[in-house]
Design goal:
single chain; alpha/beta; Inosine-uridine Nucleoside N-ribohydrolase, Chain A; 8-stranded mixed beta sheet; two-stranded antiparallel ribbon; globular
Length: about 325
């Protein structure tokens, strides 16, 4: 049976690879791609999503969403992904235009038309928070919410305490986490260490000699350089593809556990910090559902602590090899 996904993205280089993974998986139907400002401003993120969809020979609609966080000014990440978000490779403009329906309506409509929908978020959670605000019953139709975001191990990539996506719009992240959807949090740290693509592995991907394989490495050229400047790690970390792999193949998770999770919104020192109550010291439930009757539905937040790195890379390589 085919699975239906909706992907919310601030499309830059690793987002593009994650989109390819979903669009090129045969038993997944991507109902819509919704775009939010984050890695790059909204118009560039929309353009990058359209370009990636065309590269895949697909016609999934792309919907423009929030151009800024709920309460803060946008702080984007061109320093990491390049001025165009795709490694400044000079890719041509896409031929298609974004859909006329805005992202929030597209999210709500997809949730109504596809009960049990899997939502995968690759950027700040602004669009999802706005959808919840417009129609809180939206949460009832979500089967899985897979969030690429957070730093549960407290190794932040934007500040010592916080990962970029949740730092950009912590108020949105807090609202989404508190909404009580079946949520799987895939922190950015899972793309580090052995999950990084080495230079030999990047060369192996390019040797597949497909257009998609070349694009997936080339568009991340500035990210490889930025990753080395930031952490001293040599190679390519792919946080969004790791999250997409978890969405596509839940068995890739080696270790995960359910907890009460909170997002810091008040302190500038720890803005966007992922606070995981591992020992239950807060005395709170695993999350705080704000909709409907909890008796007939399991609501939780699962934190992913470890993935099967070999299986992640095999999945990624098989998709890029097929082109």
């Amino acid at each position: 049976m085919d699975r239906t996904f909706l992907i919310d993205t601030d499309t830059a280089s690793d987002d593009a690879v994650a989109l390819i993974m979903a669009l090129r998986t045969s038993d997944v139907r991507v109902a819509a791609i919704t775009v939010v400002a984050g890695n790059v401003p909204l118009p560039q993120a929309v353009r990058n999503a359209l370009f990636t969809v065309e590269l895949c020979g697909d016609d999934t609609p792309v919907h423009a969403g929030a151009a800024r966080p709920l309460r803060r000014s946008l702080q984007s990440a061109e320093f990491f992904h390049g001025e165009d978000g795709l490694g400044d490779q000079g890719y041509p403009p896409p031929r298609a235009q974004p859909a006329s329906e805005d992202a929030i309506e597209a999210i709500l409509r997809a949730s109504r038309e596809h009960p049990g929908l899997t939502v995968v978020t690759l950027g700040p959670l602004t669009n999802i928070a706005l959808a919840l605000d417009r129609d809180p019953s939206f949460a009832e139709n979500i089967g899985r919410l897979v969030i690429m975001g957070g730093a549960p191990l407290t190794v932040g990539n934007m500040t010592p305490a916080a990962e970029f996506n949740l730092w950009v719009d912590p108020e949105a992240a807090a609202a989404v986490i508190d909404a009580g959807m079946p949520t799987e949090l895939v922190g950015w740290e899972l793309c580090r260490g052995e999950a990084i693509l080495s230079h030999d592995e990047m060369s192996r991907v390019k040797a597949f000699d497909t257009e998609i394989a070349h694009f997936s490495i080339d568009c991340n050229e500035t990210a490889v350089e930025a990753n080395f400047r930031q952490s001293g790690a040599r190679g390519l970390g792919l946080p969004d593809p790791v999250a997409m792999a978890v969405a596509l193949r839940p068995d890739i998770v080696r270790r995960g556990s359910r907890h009460h999770v909170m997002i810091e919104t008040g302190s500038e020192l720890t803005r966007g910090m992922t606070v995981v109550d591992q020992l239950g010291v807060c005395g709170e439930p695993q999350n705080r559902a704000t909709w409907g009757d909890r008796a007939d539905r399991e609501a939780w937040t699962r934190v992913t602590w470890e993935i099967d790195v070999s299986s992640f890379k095999q999945l990624l390589f098989s998709i890029l090899r097929a082109g």
